[in-house]
Amino acid sequence: MKLNLLPKEEKFFDYFKKHGEIIHDAVLILKKLLETCTYPADQIQRIEDLEQEGDDIVREVALRLNKTFITPIDREDIHELTSDLDDVLDYVKSAAIRLSLFHVPDNECNLPAQELAGILVRAAEEIKTALKVLSDFKDVTPHTDLIKRLEREGDDVHHKALGDLFSDSRPVLEIIKWKEIYERLETALDRCEDVAQVIESVMLKHA
Length: 207
Prior knowledge:
Blueprint: H1 10-36, H2 41-67, H3 75-101, H4 111-135, H5 141-167, H6 172-206
């Protein structure tokens, strides 16, 4: 399926693709932190820096929207897609920061958090690909459909993880700590689904 987007303003699509790459880089770092059970400050700071790069893109898109008379897709779609991409980064950063704020000790592993991070990486990969496909005016549904399935998979992992967390005889602070981290990871997946829905909407409008 081809998308007939005219006039073609490449810069907005460049911003989208760069945002997708930044998200992918951030979630890869988060996944590695959780898999190695080590949480060095410099790696958490790297995620914060990537989130700042995402914020810079949001500002650049806003400026370009103000200067562009005719946009390649609806202005509200540009704004919503940029905002949803930024939300993914915000929650990835929030999860990473909590590893530091809660003083999670090195070598403290959490398998559900690792699994959620793994699903998040897969979703980020599909977002990155979907944004590139969209810029080439091709069908994005194979990628957006997979993002939605991954979000549902993440929901299942999250629900089971919460059940297990509260069924174990764990210290209250440990329960609170990991519940907060689970929720940030799961919400990041929710925002990935939001991104997929906007991408699909753009495709449908201009197919």
